[in-house]
Design goal:
- This protein has 387 residues and is an alpha/beta fold.
- It has helices at 22-27, 41-45, 47-54, 72-86, 97-109, 117-120, 184-202, 209-231, 236-247, 264-276, 280-295, 301-310, 320-337, 354-364, 376-386; strands spanning 11-14, 32-36, 59-63, 90-95, 132-136, 148-153, 158-163, 171-174.
- The longest helix has 23 residues, at 209-231.
- The radius of gyration is 20 Å and the shape is globular.
- Bound molecules: 5,6-dihydroxy-NADP and zinc ion (ZN).
- Zinc ion is lined by residues 141, 193, 196-197, 266, 280.
Length: 387
């Protein structure tokens, strides 16, 4: 087992109606709040109105219109400006992972005198960030329990995972009822995203029985409860299980003591959504089985066999190679069965920029150090296989 140094400072407040605690929570941080949200779903659901009602004694400044795959310009820059101009005490992010990720970059940028891109691009280390409280409305990214935010810069086709312990939300509110209105497309993308977070941490060199069991249980729960959410969007228990599983995805708890993964599918997908602005979970679902097939060899086979038997229910009595290949087929079939388009062409990506993307990924994502190392040719092949 590898050494580790681990701390998650985020307070999770989970369950039906927990928003009632919002005034007491916000009071710890101050009265000037930057309320961040996306394209309006929170108004349709009624959370926006509820937040306003609960925080009547606070001064609320708003940043709306944060898009999926949140953009540095204008959203991060506008948010930083609003915080500085208004001396904001705390950010309240209400929405999906994109709203929260954008808010994390704003929180750091607001406490920095230079260009916030210096921080996101790791040129300068942040010394301070505003506290963040969030009400997460979409189960997928796990941003509510981790210290990363993924920010896109359109003009350079960059989509960077900006990670810093300062960016852990102070408090995350998770009410599964708020996810009842998430569309089938976004629900399926959320299942695929959280499954891939788990897979990225499962396919590593050095693991423990404990972590393997945790990951296998996560994957089974996501598949089973994810399907139930799609069949009946108002199934509280299924939405709750899915929400909690997603929350564990990216904060490292699934891989304490494991060797590093390199997160290859994320490295590849981030370029797809940077170049084509596609839905993150869909990109991952398309890439994952192709990546699996590409890295399957004698060395990686035992992991695929374990995954096949314990997660995908493949018979242990078959030859190892058959188990591994069936596990990969089952992964593809599951994503297809929940309605995800499983070819890049179906999400508007053709071969025209594959060489450029493969180069961009090889240069920026460091996948030569992944569990199964990927060079530019490997990445190009995975992209071609995904067309
Ligand atoms: O903008 P609004 O109107 O709010 O609509 C959103 C958006 O259109 C909608 N939505 C959210 N909650 C809803 C809802 N619609 C109805 N009912 C609700 N309750 O869903 C759409 C997608 O929202 P978005 O926030 O983009 O989705 P998600 O949570 O999947 O976030 C995706 C982003 O997170 C990044 C991805 O790369 C992508 O940019 N990631 C962040 C990670 C992290 N911080 O740890 C890790 C992930 O691997 C991922 O990379
Ligand atoms: Zn992800």
């Amino acid at each position: 087992m590898q050494n580790f140094d681990y701390q998650t400072p985020t307070r999770l407040i989970f369950g039906k109606g927990v928003i009632a605690k919002l005034p007491e929570v916000m009071a710890q941080f101050g009265k000037k709040i930057l309320l961040t949200y996306g394209g309006g779903s929170i108004k349709k659901i009624g959370i926006y109105q509820k937040v306003k009602e609960l925080l009547t004694d606070c001064e609320i400044i708003e940043l709306s219109g944060i898009q999926p795959n949140p953009k540095y310009d204008p959203s991060v820059l506008d948010g930083v400006k609003l915080c500085k101009e208004n001396n904001v005490d705390v950010i309240l992010a209400v929405g999906g992972g994109s709203v929260l990720d954008c808010s994390k970059a704003i929180a750091a940028g607001a406490c920095y005198d230079g260009d916030p891109w210096d921080l996101i691009s790791y040129k300068v280390k942040a010394q301070k960030a505003l506290p963040i409280v969030d009400i997460i409305t979409l189960a997928a990214t796990g941003s509510e329990y981790d210290c990363g935010g993924v920010i896109s810069r359109t003009e350079t086709n960059d989509k960077i995972g900006y990670v810093d312990p300062l960016l852990f939300p102070a408090v995350s509110f998770l009410d599964p009822e708020y996810t009842f209105t998430v569309s089938k497309k976004q629900t399926a993308a959320g299942i695929a995203d959280a499954m891939n977070h788990t897979i990225e941490q499962y396919f590593v060199e050095d693991t423990t029985l404990l972590n393997d069991g945790f990951c296998e249980s996560m994957l089974r729960s996501l598949m089973q409860n994810g399907r139930l959410c799609l069949d009946n969007p108002n199934d509280y228990t299924a939405r709750a299980e899915m929400m909690l599983a997603c929350t564990y995805g990216c904060n490292g708890i699934l891989s304490l003591g494991n060797s590093m993964s390199g997160w290859p599918c994320h490295g590849i997908e981030h370029a797809l959504s940077a170049y084509y602005d596609i839905t993150h979970g869909e990109g991952l679902a398309i890439i994952t089985p192709r990546w699996m097939r590409h890295i399957l060899n004698e060395k990686t086979m035992p992991r695929f066999v374990k995954y096949g038997i314990n997660v995908m229910g493949v018979s242990p009595n078959l030859p190892l190679e058959v188990i591994a290949n069936r596990a990969i087929d089952a992964t593809y079939d599951f994503f297809k069965s929940i309605g995800i388009p499983m070819h890049l062409r179906e999400v508007g990506i053709d071969e025209s920029r594959i060489d450029e993307m493969a180069h961009h990924i090889a240069v920026n994502e460091g996948l030569e150090n992944a569990y199964a190392p990927l060079n530019e040719d490997d990445i190009r092949q995975i992209l071609i296989d995904s067309l």
